[in-house]
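Give me the fold.
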Amino acid sequence: MIRCLPRGICSPSYHLEGEGHQAEILFNAFGEGGELVIDGRSLTVEKQGFLSGSWALVDGGRVMATAGKTSAFTRTIEGEGPSGAFRLNAESVFGRTMLLETRNGTAVISPDHAFTRRASIGGPAADFTTACFAFWLTGMLWRRAAKNSSTAHSHPVG
């Protein structure tokens, strides 16, 4: 199991630890990019175009993994990581739990409970880098949902 702990009460970043590895998951303040520091090695998450739903995980100019939304209307992302193809999709329409499907099986990315940002990744993940990238993608989806929810409630209709 990989534990995913927020770095601070107001910080969007996470510390991941498990399976003999550790990582820092960082989100850019603006836009949908970020950084993964996995076992001391820094990897950049780059969005592939302003309106695209595609991202690349880059290590010094070399693409390590790619991912893209299958539709603008679903929370399903398909990608290719160091260990092969993966699929990240929501377990249900309303929940935050995500399923990471790889050739090794299905891992579950889930918050500890409804009122926390603490989370875990349980089950067989392809490799730690893919699990970290999938968690970054999950965190990005959670941030989008929170932003959309707060925007919807801040503009009363009528």
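DSSP finds one helix and twelve strands in the chain.
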